[in-house]
Amino acid sequence: MTQPLKDILVLDFSTLLPGPMATLMLSEAGAEVVKFERPGTGEDARHTDPMIDGESIGFAVLNQGKRSVALDLKAENAVNILRPLLEKADVLVEQFRPGVMGRLGLGYEAVRAINPGIVYCSITGYGQTGPKATAAGHDLNYVGDAGVLSLSRGPDAHPTMPFGLIADIGGGTYPAVVNILLALIARQKTGKGAHLDIAMAEGAFAFAYWAHAEGVIAGQDIENGGGRLTGGLARYRLYSAADGRQIAVGALEEKFWQAFCDVIDQPADLRDDWSDPEGCSAEVARRLGSQPSTHWEPLLVAADCCCSVVKTPAEAATDPHFSARGVFDRKLDISGKSVPALPLPIAPEFRVSKDVAGRAASLGEDNLHYGAEPRDSE
Question: Which EC main class describes this enzyme (predicted)?
């Protein structure tokens, strides 16, 4: 099957995580992605640990398959050097604070004047407008401002950090990809491009849709760790087995809950976790803590009750289920070593063949190809 984004040219001015992961997905679907970096050092992610023979694994994972152009965007002739690419580009992705691209002569209006059909995607923490538009922040700040962090932050004495980068990826990467694709479809009908204003803090709201219903619309107080999905019920919690491994109990529906209770032999008078959630969960914790995870795992699998042993990333990568589906079959070349590529939610039939190992381009590797060698202003 022909890749759906074949012949789509993407100019990537983003760094670190949200933008690079978005353009990685576009690249995997066939787009030609040209990544622009600072001359000399490149983007900061090139220098982050862990590394293989001096090459950053994290950078390689997010930037494989892209072209690299080293260009000083502050140079007087930068826009002239970029003009041929701007004229034919389909998508531009940038991740600077609002106003920065404008000061460089590369703001949306300036680029649209060169290419009216450009789909120009700006990813920021708080959006292009509003009181916080230029405020600095990271994922932790964005989920905090969106009210998501307050829902399950652990005890006050030992707050629990979020397990994933919800705002960066869920509020930045995914909305960027979805809206870029929507804008490309709209352009087919109208011939017009668009400026996409992607705010990571806003994108985080959708991850707690139930909290919006309860806390915003219904006006109910939501206690830290007290929600139906954040530990308020015994049937949806994490428990420790005797060997220190954790058991993820997700038996929300009554049939699953009763099946789980049968496995651990939970007394009938301590199965109603709606009326006595703490008493019920204390007994569940005692029973699960009496045996190692190796005892419970086969019993829970047989009961098919939405309960499982929590796996480490390394264990997940060798799980027979994921192996059978080829989740980690794609390979990445880092300094001559073949390693598993990052699994991405792009259907296999739309992606580059899994037999082709991807690699991240060295800094400025493609300058000559795109005519981006420094030259005098025209």
Answer: transferase
- Domains of the chain listed by start with CATH number: 9-203+328-359 (3.40.50.10540), 236-317 (3.30.1540.10)
In degrees and rounded to multiples of 5, residue 102 shows phi and psi of -60, -45
The 8 Å CB, 24+ separation contacts for 141-147 are: 141/201, 142/167, 142/168, 142/171, 142/200, 142/201, 142/204, 143/167, 143/201, 143/204, 145/201, 146/171, 146/201, 146/202, 146/204, 146/205, 146/208, 147/205, 147/208, 147/211, 147/215
Which are the catalytic amino acids?
Answer: 168
Convert the pLDDT of each residue in 101-157 to its tens digit: 999 999 999 999 999 999 999 999 999 999 999 999 999 999 999 999 999 998 889
Please list, in sequence order, all residues whose beta carbon lies within 8 angstroms of the beta carbon of residue 89, skipping any fewer than 6 positions away: 9, 10, 11, 115, 118
Query: DSSP of 213-282, one letter per residue?
Result: IIIIIS-----TT-STTTTSSTTEEEEE-TTS-EEEEE--SHHHHHHHHHHHT--GGG--TTT-HHHHHH
Q: Which of 330, 326, 370, 348 is nearest to 4 (CA)?
A: 348
63: burial class by Cβ within 10 Å (0-12, 13-18, 19+)?
buried
Whole-angstrom Cα distance, residue 73 to residue 204?
A: 31
- My answer on whether omega of the bond before 50 falls inside 30° of 0, hence cis, is yes
What residue type is 77 in one-letter code? N
Q: 108: which residues sit within 8 A by CB, 6+ positions away?
A: 101, 120, 122, 195
pTM comes to 0.94
